[in-house]
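User: Just a sanity check before I run the rest of the batch. Below are the structure tokens for the first item. I only need the designed sequence back.
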């Protein structure tokens, strides 16, 4: 199948490479000429395990271009994978999706199956149908399909090759497009969940909202565990063995970040409020997440009441491990608070970079740890599990370790004389 993927971000690029691997002929387009140049040279513009290897291996099936009209003209299937960033009031910005649909309207001379992969508010795909008709595109020339993506950064390739489901939202039970989608995903072993356009949009938002709520729930439980001297890790294990609850996404910590959960929650809150529904649970989920950094700041201040000129080392910048993405990262929020308290902040991250005043970033973890008054682990990179605490002990001023991810081996840390501080960890 000849496919045009519009947008070479996380979702677009991974989809393009995976569909090339499935044997389709893919053109991936993006407005960013630098990105396109690099991709044509075979190098990946994002840090995503396994993606570059797959791109190089299947490069005969994939090309990258800036010429969107040409790519649309040749393809029978078009995948929209452009960003839908958040506007200041929480609404999703559909500017890029709308631009793409205008270009498609001006370029359409044969039948196209237009697949929306971008996360878009409920009702957007129905609107796209209306826009195309208003622009006098013949009804026989297109079908719109909503096919949201559930991949995670850091395991994008694996998630796309082995999804737990493929959600397909159709216009009026359009069976022709369903067959197309089955051809597109041929080779991937996952059940299809078939619904309406709006149904698919809602599934995407409900999925991210539920996962985010699970995290905030555990963060609230951890706050309670903290005062009762109960270990939240035991609670996670205890409740997670119940299949109705499930063991994943029960890790309490500094809160969720990234380009999806915060944005999608805000967008669903905005959409609901616009329909005069007050989504109290979603709002509470967001509020717990926003204030989680303060919980850690309070903990820190209980050990170091005055942070002025204290050297604090933050290990980890990215919103989670195995990515260099710092969008809405709680580590960055924490750093801002530390700077606001006049601390001298030293940071180290295996992949991510962040430049700002009053923060020094080091290339080697040991350099970041020299003479520090407190070590804060802000991202659960595996590398931090293997720190040499014996060596670190000789480098630091004070032996305090604030583990905002509850993931270090506490016994190991304490054995070397450090004071281990987690959230909801019993003494
Ligand atoms: C998330 C969803 O998991 C994907 O299914 C979805 O496709 C994607 O958003 C999207 O909408 O594009 P992602 O943002 O890559 O994927 O990251 P996750 O692995 O879900 O982690 C999100 C945040 O939650 C991270 O900051 C992570 O540290 C945090 N988290 C996760 C916890 O604090 N506790 C947990 O138990 C799990």
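Assistant: Here's the designed sequence for the first item:
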């Amino acid at each position: 199948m000849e496919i045009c993927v519009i947008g070479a971000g996380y979702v677009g690029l991974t989809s393009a490479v995976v569909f090339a691997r499935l044997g389709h002929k893919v053109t991936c387009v993006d407005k960013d000429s630098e990105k396109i140049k690099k991709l044509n040279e075979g190098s990946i513009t994002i840090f995503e395990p396994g993606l570059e290897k797959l791109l190089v291996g299947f490069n005969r099936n994939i090309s990258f271009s800036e010429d969107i009209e040409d790519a649309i003209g040749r393809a029978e299937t078009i995948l929209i994978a452009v960003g839908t960033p958040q506007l200041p009031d929480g609404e999703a910005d559909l500017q890029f999706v709308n631009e793409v649909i205008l270009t498609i309207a001006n370029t359409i001379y044969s039948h196209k199956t237009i697949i929306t992969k971008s996360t878009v508010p409920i009702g957007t795909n129905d609107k796209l149908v209306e826009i195309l008709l208003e622009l006098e595109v013949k009804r026989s020339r297109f079908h719109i399909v909503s096919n949201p993506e559930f991949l995670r950064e850091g395991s994008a390739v694996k998630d796309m090759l082995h999804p737990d489901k493929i959600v397909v939202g159709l216009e009026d039970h359009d069976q022709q497009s369903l067959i197309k989608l089955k051809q597109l995903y041929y080779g991937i072993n996952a059940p299809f969940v078939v619904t309406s356009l709006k149904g698919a949009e809602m599934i995407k938002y409900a999925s991210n909202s539920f996962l985010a709520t699970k995290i905030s729930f555990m963060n609230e439980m951890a706050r309670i565990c903290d005062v009762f001297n109960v270990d939240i890790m035991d609670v996670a294990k205890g409740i997670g063995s119940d299949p109705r609850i499930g063991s994943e996404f029960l890790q309490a910590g500094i809160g969720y970040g990234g380009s999806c959960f915060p944005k999608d929650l805000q967008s669903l809150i905005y959409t609901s409020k616009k329909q005069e529904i007050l989504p109290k649970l979603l709002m509470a989920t967001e509020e717990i997440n926003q204030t989680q950094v303060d919980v850690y700041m309070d903990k820190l201040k209980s050990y170091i009441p005055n942070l002025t000129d204290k050297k604090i080392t933050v290990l980890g910048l990215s919103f989670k491990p195995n990515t260099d993405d710092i969008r809405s990262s709680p580590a960055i929020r924490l750093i801002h608070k530390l700077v606001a308290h006049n601390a001298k902040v030293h940071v180290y991250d295996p992949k991510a970079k962040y430049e700002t005043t009053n923060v020094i970033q080091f290339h080697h973890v040991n350099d970041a740890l020299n003479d520090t008054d407190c070590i804060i682990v802000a991202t659960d990179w595996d590398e931090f599990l293997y720190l040499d605490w014996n060596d670190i002990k000789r480098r630091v001023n004070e032996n305090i370790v604030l583990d905002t991810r509850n993931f270090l081996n506490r016994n190991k840390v304490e054995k070397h004389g450090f004071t281990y501080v987690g959230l909801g960890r019993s003494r």
